[in-house]
Amino acid sequence: MEWEQFASLKNHGPKQNASLIQIASESRIALFHVACFKGSSTDELMPPSLRAVLEDPNIIKTGVNVVGDSNRMRRFFDVEVKGLMELSHIYRIVKYSEKTPKDVNFKLVSLATQVESILLLPLRKDEVRVSRWASKLNGQQTEYAAADAYAGLQLFLTLEKMRYGMKPRPPRPGFLEEGKPLILGNGTKITRSASKTSASASAKKATSGNIPQEEEENDEFFDAAEELDIEALEEPLPVDQELTYPSLPLQTDDSELADDGRTDIPVSLKNDSSEPTDDKTSAQRPETLLAQSWAQSFLLSSSRQTSQKGSSSRSRASAGASSLRAYHLWHEQGLDIEEVAACCREPPLAHSTVASYIMTVIREERLPFDMDRARAILDVMPSTVQWRYEKLLASRAH
């Protein structure tokens, strides 16, 4: 959900406090811009189909701080959301239960941190998040809002696959409304009373204006779009894992969102009962080693230029190591897209992912490229984004 930053829970209504509702499935992303609906009553603002989904306990609703969104639904729309699954709980179980079980608790972890850690993709968190959500949405707002919901879905699917691969396998956390403990693979139960945050931290968040003040729990709540000190939550990603900022992950049925030796990112969990396979990069190929070395040098050079010119400089690379590596293989070494995909990882990356990486470098870093070859790789990209890069190539042709 998105809402106006000035909105008061006591003094403003649903159009300011629940301006936009985002929900995503594997095939669709829906944005309900409540602030622009006619009328003011609950029946006028809450679509019956959306209410049916939210109140159905058989449909999992997952995200970060789902209890906060749930409370807003109850307060402003008289909707009792069922089937709530907090991503932070699954994340902590998967990430910490085997090596540092003391870190498995009910504290929230920002969506951006989880996406960076698990999917190796940064989630856009800039000035768009504090824009006017009650006004007509622009393109940046639409993409930001859709990406938030879609990222949560893909994160849930990925964490579930990783959980299935753990031995012993911990059970999936119960629905939030059930109030069940978190259970580790060895059977250890983590109860909520054992993982409370300080009252002062909770009070600070409760007065921020971004969360419901009637929370029944003492966890440190925050909205999924709230800016956090990520370094205080997780170790920052190393330079060679910095990736570009996509509007939305480009994904088809046979593609994955991450490489660099990570476990496959699933589109669905059709093979829940099977053990996940380990995917290994093709990092030992001479072509890949050369591309990787060039990408790291490019990032290091950009970082040094930024340090010399000051933090406000735009010299720092926007594209990440994976995108730069794919570009080098394609442009500098002259490999076709199939060969690039094979060099990036074994099994090969999806062609649409490779194409996205290459076009990202062309767009963000303005590096040289062959126009005919660039137009050819547009054919493997989703038609929904081809137009954007066609305009880019047209502008660079002059």
Q: What report would you give on this structure?
A:
There is one protein chain. The protein folds into 2 domains: 14-238, 2-Layer Sandwich (Nucleotidyltransferase, domain 5); 286-396, no CATH class. It contains 15 helices and 6 strands. It has 398 residues and is mostly helical. The longest helix has 26 residues, at 139-164. Helix content is 42%, strand content 5%. The protein has helices spanning 14-17, 42-45, 48-55, 66-77, 87-96, 111-119, 139-164, 199-206, 230-233, 286-309, 321-332, 337-344, 351-365, 371-378, 383-396, and strands at residues 21-24, 29-32, 61-63, 84-86, 182-183, 189-190. The chain has a two-stranded antiparallel sheet with strand order 1-2. A two-stranded parallel sheet has the order 3-4. Strands 5-6 form a two-stranded antiparallel sheet. Helix 6 (111-119) crosses helix 7 (139-164), helix 10 packs across helix 11 and helix 14 (371-378) runs antiparallel to helix 15 (383-396). The protein is globular, with a radius of gyration of 22 Å.
What key attributes describe this structure?
globular, Nucleotidyltransferase, domain 5, 2 domains, 398 residues, mainly alpha
- Assembly status: single chain
Q: Biggest sheet, open or closed, and with what strands and sense?
A: 2 strands, antiparallel
Derived from helix and strand composition plus strand pairing, the structural class reads mainly alpha
Q: Give the low-confidence spans.
A: 197-281
CATH fold topology of the largest domain: Nucleotidyltransferase, domain 5
